[in-house]
Design brief:
single chain, 132 residues, alpha/beta, 5-stranded parallel sheet, 39% helix
Length: 132
């Protein structure tokens, strides 16, 4: 299975364990899930929003898929909303994964044709990626 180039957007303070689980699935030899992570997990050495946005834009542009983990506070994250808008601008295939079905959807995800996984399951996420 070819590795899919995926940028993962998420609330770092609250949802990074889910991002790490995605990576774990990808590295596990007995699990059919393969991703080539394009996310911006390494600190960008700048306090300038312009510099940070330029670095993140390049990473989103390098990915084929944009996957956002929708946690309970993701809708409040100005960075996650900006990343969604950048993915739309760059015409990426967008996958949204609700970590809990009751989590609030970020406004930028409405009416953009995103593929959804309504819970954080391997099957749900794999299906949404397939359908994107």
């Amino acid at each position: 299975m070819a590795k899919k180039k995926i940028f993962v957007s998420y609330d770092y303070d609250n949802d990074r364990n889910y991002k790490n689980l995605l990576l774990g699935w990808s590295f596990h030899p007995d699990i059919e899930f393969s991703m080539n992570d394009r996310s911006a997990d390494v600190s960008i050495q700048s306090y300038s929003a312009v510099v940070i946005k330029r670095a993140i834009s390049a990473k989103i542009n390098d990915a084929t898929y944009f996957l956002i983990l929708v946690g309970k506070d993701t809708w409040k994250s100005s960075w996650c909303n900006w990343e969604i808008e950048k993915a739309i601008e760059l015409r990426k295939k967008i996958i949204a994964v609700k970590l809990n079905s009751t989590n609030t959807t970020p406004a930028a995800l409405y009416n953009i044709g995103a593929k959804w996984a309504m819970s954080f399951t391997l099957l749900g996420i794999s299906k949404a990626l397939e359908d994107a």
